[in-house]
Amino acid sequence: MNTWELIATERARLVEALTKLEDDQWTVPSLCTGWSTKDTLAHIVSTAEMTPPKFFAGLAGSGFSFGKLMARNVATVGADPVPRLLERLESKVHDRNSPPGPTSSWLVETVAHGEDIAYPTGTTIAHSEEALVAAADAAKDTQPLLGAKKRVAGLRLRAEDVDWTAGDGPEVHGPIRTLILAMVGRPPVLGDLKGDGVPTLQARS
């Protein structure tokens, strides 16, 4: 599959998994600092509906602050109830809209933000192995915004559930979805990883 096909697969599987959450699970803090699970879903929907012209217009309207733009989009999109947000995401499964940036970054976002919701709610998303591997490959080299490249520099990452490794140095190993979350800076998952490199990763998160 190409990257957009992987994104479509992940969006569809995300919708399928999230429809099973109870109402009270949508107020739980997500792994994104300051965002509830519903806020994170609103961000996923906002990204899926974004286009470059809409992005630049919104950025200008937010004083060219990326953080303010994201907060504004989450507040606006998040005004809808969860069932409507899931409908909106489902309608965008096969769309190829996005903000400016490499397509691989939107795969990382879809996987990571899905897990930002799934991890604290004990939900399992039936990720495609191909998508997880592609997301991990993209995440490890991403520096702007996510800071993953510096975070994992000098470490060897090894997935226990799929055939994936990256880097050299003290090892950090665990499920690939947990490694992805660790790479993009989610400290709560570090306790689920093992290896001599975990203390270094903890110090950088």
TrEMBL record:
Tree of life domain: Bacteria
Record-annotated membrane-spanning stretches: none
Keyword entries, A-Z: Isomerase
Pfam families in the record: MDMPI_N
InterPro entries referenced in this protein's UniProt entry, alphabetically: DinB/YfiT-like, Maleyloyr_isom, MDMPI_metal-binding
Location of the Mycothiol-dependent maleylpyruvate isomerase metal-binding domain: 8-94
Protein name per Swiss-Prot or TrEMBL: Maleylpyruvate isomerase family mycothiol-dependent enzyme
Calcium in keyword set: no
Organism: Actinomycetospora endophytica
One GO MF term: isomerase activity
